[in-house]
Amino acid sequence: MSPEARARDAAVPAEPKVRIRNLTYAYGAKEVLHDISMDMPERQVTAIIGPSGCGKSTLIKSINRIAEVVSDVSIQGTVHVGDLDVYGPDVDLVELRRRVGMVFQKPNPFPKSIFENAAFGPRLHGVTDRHRLRAIVERSLRQAALWDEVREQLDASALELSGGQQQRLCIARALAVEPEVVLMDEPCSALDPIATARIEELIHELKADYTIVIVTHNMQQAARVSDRTAFMYLGRLVEFDRTDTVFTNPACKETEDYITGRFG
Amino acid sequence: MRRGLAGLVFESLCRGLTFVTCAALISILGLIVVHGVGVITPEFLFGTPTEGMTKGGIFPAIFGTICITLLMIMMALPLGVAAAIYLVEYAGKGLGPRIIRAAVNNLAGVPSIVFGLFGLGFFILFVGRNIDRVLQTGLLFGQPAMLWAAATLAILVLPVVIVSTEEALRGVPVSHREAAFALGATPWQVVRRAVLPQAYPGILTGAILSVSRGAGETAPILFTGCAYFLPRLPLTEFLGIPIINPLDQFMELSYHIFIMATQSTDAQVTRPIQYGTTLVLVTLTFVLNLAAIITRNRFRRRLGAARP
User: Fold this and answer.
1) Digit-coded pLDDT (tens) for A194-205
2) What is the pLDDT of residue A19?
3) Contacting residues of A for B175, CB less than 8 Å apart
4) How many domains does chain B have?
5) B194: which chain A residues are within 8 Å (Cβ-Cβ)?
6) Whose CB has fewer CB within 10 Å in chain A, the N or C terminal residue?
7) Is the dihedral of CA A79, A84, A86, A90 positive or negative?
8) Percent of chain A whose predicted confidence (pLDDT) is above 70
9) Is A125 a member of any domain?
10) What is the C-alpha separation between A80 and B226, in angstroms, rounded?
């Protein structure tokens, strides 16, 4: 971690990178997010926890507008990523998703080679030069701590990798387009403890360069990786504070009940 | 005890019916092979019919069948794949797409002779004659030709292509579409780069099915382009190179069998030719299928391990 980044770490709360204001989100007639407002600081890790169905996945999927790809949704309120008005009338979805990358719950590499997976995003955005692609692929695989394991077999199918490697490849694929924000939707839920530990380590390294928002229903994970933690319940933001505060001295009774395992 | 007996009866029944099905298939194929294999000689395969079509070979019919099948698939595949992509990726679930789907399914149920009459009425008399009128080409397009026969067959097999392509597209996991969208792909890029490459094996399966369906059809080409007897090949020269002339008529194997069996001056004499031609048609369809299956499997391997 660079000294510069360390300095930024210390200054909590940092400049907000993602600003959500009064966000209400519904699939059809079913309201899943109710009047959410929160700021996610730049180059920090924000964790979102809460019981299943509390809307935490929907919340991060509202930041890159990926939820609406497969469902009919209705939205009120605003989301800003930096200066970009995410639900503004003239937002360019391609531009938004280039700036906000995403890693999904289950590793979902394309059935292509490792190289082609990492190069998928750059190719979409018009990079065709073989040398440049190679450089990008190497950089993003290094950033995702996968390079040393796959450097000899870049042309092998991504599906031959283990689950943990596949997920790191998906992280590399997201990093290859140089996003500013990386959204992670329960990235370790399909992985074993060792693979999980590697990803958590990786998250620590990545926050020097990226703003990270991670959804998890593993509370220890939230405590380990994040700077700030949001607790959601039934589509509402119950509590959002520094992670150590949320876990040692929560302000709300519901939060305390959840993190001490009384429900959820 | 009664339950055990019922199970036993049911099992025997299923076993018996399976046996009947297999036996029927084997006896048909066996009959064709036994009677046909003696006829197959180089002269039969590469010669033209002679002596009032009671002797000679069937090369023009083999050639015609291959040409018409290729031409058919060249028309049906792009059209059908485009329609399926529209239905799956763009159309959504409204009333319009539902009507289109119902229409496609109904198209699959239309008797093939209706396609033949449609081809005559629409392609030859309407499209062809109007092209002639506009281009002042006399009677060039407005008569039975390989082009129109292939177009008619293409419409016949269109539902097969559309339905199997739709299934192939739907088989691509939503998570891969999401992944591509999340990387900033446009809807078309998602289709082109994430969905289609994975759907190729399924689309090729559709092509296989439509080739098998189209290659053996007689009724749709009856009025639209196949010839009773045409000793030359439907070729023309283009810059000195012989190319297929899509405006020519052609002989075709299944139609050849039909006329040999029903229209021949002496059906008894031509019996061996009928069997031989049938054997060639069955073999040709089989080879086309095999080629397509091999291509499909190669695509699958290239995609890596099979999807769970």
Assistant:
1) 889 989 999 999
2) 94
3) 104, 106, 108
4) 1
5) 110
6) N
7) positive
8) 94
9) no
10) 66
pLDDT value for A80: 94
Decide if B193 and A173 are in contact by the 8 Å CB cutoff. no
Contacts of B41 by beta carbon, 8 Å cutoff, 6+ apart: none
What is the spatial distance between Cα A27 and Cα B271, in angstroms, rounded to a whole number?
68
Residue B202 lies in a domain: yes
Residues in chain B with pLDDT values less than 70: 1-3, 302-308
Whether residue A243 contacts residue A226, with contact meaning beta carbons closer than 8 Å, is answered with yes
CATH number at residue A24: 3.40.50.300
State if pTM tops 0.90. Answer: no
User: What is the least distance, in Å, from the CA of A107 to any CA of chain B?
Assistant: 9
| Domain presence at residue B7 | no
A230: pLDDT confidence band, cut at 50, 70 and 90?
Answer: very high
Report the distance separating Cα A211 and Cα A198, nearest Å. 19
Q: Report d(CA B197, CA A102) in Å as an integer.
A: 22
Instruction: Examine residue B31 and state whether it is found in any structural domain, yes or no.
Output: no
Residue at B190 is within a domain: yes
- Could you report the per-residue pLDDT of A154-213, keeping only the tens digit for each? 999 999 999 999 999 999 999 999 999 999 999 998 888 988 998 999 999 999 999 999
**Which residues in chain A touch residue B92, judged by CB atoms under 8 angstroms apart?**
none
Structural domain range at position A54: 3-108+181-259
Domain count, chain A: 1
- A127 is a domain residue: no
Count chain A–chain B contacts defined by CB atoms under 8 A.
Answer: 77
Chain B: residue whose CA lies nearest to A67: B178
CA distance B198 to chain A (A): 8
**CA of A134 vs chain B CAs: smallest distance (Å):** 18
**Nearest CA among B38, B194, B240, B128 for reference residue A108:** B194
pLDDT value at position A115?
Answer: 96
Question: Is residue A38 in some structural domain?
Answer: yes
pLDDT number for residue B214? 86
Q: Is residue A144 part of a domain?
A: no
In the numeric block, which tokens belong to residue B152?
A: 């008619």
- Determine, for residues A69 and B180 on separate chains, whether the beta-carbon distance falls below 8 Å: no
Residue range of the domain that includes B213: 56-302
Q: What is the CATH number of the domain that holds B126?
A: 1.10.3720.10
CA dist B244 and B233 (Å) reads 8
Establish if A64 touches chain B: CB-CB under 8 angstroms: yes
Give me the residue from A69, A106, A170 closest to B181, CB to CB: A69
The pLDDT score that the predictor gives to residue A1 is 45
Higher pLDDT among residues A225 and B298, named by residue: A225
Give chain B positions within 8 Å (CB) of A170: 179
